[in-house]
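Standup notes
- DV: blocked on the single-chain target, sequence here:
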Amino acid sequence: MREFAIDTPFGRISGLRRDVTGGPRVLALHGWLDNAASFVPLAPHLPGLDLAVPDLPGHGASAHLPAAADYTMVAFARAGFAIADALGWERFALLAHSLGGAVASVMAAANPQRVERLLVIESLGALAEAEDRTAQRLREAFAARALPRRPLRVFDDIATAVRARMQANALSERVARLLVERGIAPAAADGGAAGFVWRSDPRLTQPTAVRISEAQVRDLVAGIACPVRVIYATPAQPYFPEAIRRARAALLRDGELMVMDGSHHLHMEDPAGVAAAIGDFFDRP
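- DV (later): unblocked, structure below
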């Protein structure tokens, strides 16, 4: 895939692109604190797709949102449509992992006339929270935003950053290196480069100000009209337990659920297996 960059109302968006004339148009959305390299292992196994893989706002090489803006599911979904607009795509399919799957779910529910198909990996809907946590979450988010910005962690070399990412997400060295090499930048210093820092927006690690309830998420999922295929890894992640994720999938009007042995980043660790699970999903009329 080649590098691309486009200008949108959300700033300059960078990413990876593979043009396949006549192939299904697929916008691929990565997970939280990942970047477009998330789909590098999978792309060769899906050769017929006209594939665009952006770094979402605040991630990878894409612009950060202005200081007055918040990173929300709705903002990310609007950015997704803005990216499609810049590509000249009116209708397209979505391939998404984790956070990207939450964003893609919102996109499919909010603008069904534009989304032809949806394939989500390790996600469906958004993270939910009980209503009685609303005030406390707002306080935590506002307090975090008021704190002075902490200095970015500086890594002496790429290998150290790779080890940190491996430890944080239980990733193999090969997978962590793909994400890290796209996700870091040289740290500026008076005497020249002083190592490397993450180039994602630090605000992405702050508490989200508002989360919707599980009932709202289920209404969103039930409102998705296009064909959907969901691929979950087993064992389930603690924040997305088996009972909840199966209950959400059961609400889909036109949905298929597949469960595979693997980790949260199974599309990177086992791209051939995930490609087999995807099969001809994007090629169907």
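- Follow-up: Residues 73-87 form the longest helix (15 residues).
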